[in-house]
Amino acid sequence: MSSEGRPGQLLVLSAPSGAGKTTLARAFLARHADAVFSVSATTRAPRGAERDGVDYHFVTPARFAEWVAEGAFAEWADVFGRRYGTLKRTVQEALSRGQVALFDIDVQGGEQLKAAFPREATTVFILPPSAEELERRLRGRSTDGEDAIAKRLAMAHAEVRRGLRTYQYVVVNDELEAALASIEAIAERERLRLADRTDPALDARIARFRREAAELGAWRDHAGA
Ligand code: ADP
Ligand code: 5GP
What ligand has the least distance to the C-alpha of 19? Predict the structure, then answer.
């Protein structure tokens, strides 16, 4: 609990690359003054306009290994041959300030965070409307070559299969505004739950988009879920 008595919240967003997670996270942060982005540590090099301490804490493999040995991470994982991790201090700061911390981490990291903070963490898996649309978005973003796109699509199926099984919520990012509204509803409901309150209207809304996601057959076939 924060000093104002508001519970902090850990909102984990995971998705196959290209699903629109970055777009949704930015939009959420722009609309919620009490939300902060959880800056992870990584051993990969900065890309494009990325800034140290803002997008990631860019560290050497040796420093990362030191932090692992010291038990400084709340969770960490190998992704595409690089290491990524959430520092315990980042989580503790958000919780002690009563903030909503947004995590852009992969499914293995999300599962670890949920296990470490079962009460405060909420896991949301973002699904593109179809595998075909995911491919279109990856190409549209045009940051990847053909090889990288093929690799990301292959990874996407494994990630979707796992996310559908282990995450608490699934949000389909078909129309951006609707997907954002769903994430906001989830955050609000979980925040109420932390304060031991409920809102039946909110629950009904969430049940409705959950049904819609469950009826989305396209990914079930692809993911074998
Ligand atoms: P991720 O962070 O999951 O890899 P991005 O946020 O970079 O994905 O989005 C991938 C591409 O898809 C971007 O070009 C983005 O503008 C586009 N995009 C995101 N959400 C939608 C949506 N709901 N409809 C259409 N295009 C979208
Ligand atoms: P990118 O290199 O494209 O920024 O990220 C690659 C992948 O690593 C993405 O799936 C991203 O969600 C994931 N990732 C980023 N930070 C972390 C982290 O701290 N922990 C874990 N487990 N995954 C992360």
Answer: 1
104, 113, 141: residue to mutate for ligand 2 pocket, most atoms within 8 A of CB: 104
Q: 9-38+99-223: which CATH architecture?
A: 3-Layer(aba) Sandwich (3.40)
Round to whole Å and give the CA distance between 221 and 216: 10
Please report where in the chains the tokens 């959420």 appear, as a residue.
Answer: 28
176 CA: nearest ligand 1 atom: 23
pLDDT at 221: 56
Annotated domain spans of the chain: 9-38+99-223
At 31, list the tokens: 């609309």
Cα 37 from Cα 39, distance rounded (Å): 6
pTM for this one? 0.92
Q: How many residues does the chain have?
A: 225
Section 199-225 average pLDDT: 76
Cα dihedral 86/56/139/179 (nearest 10): 60
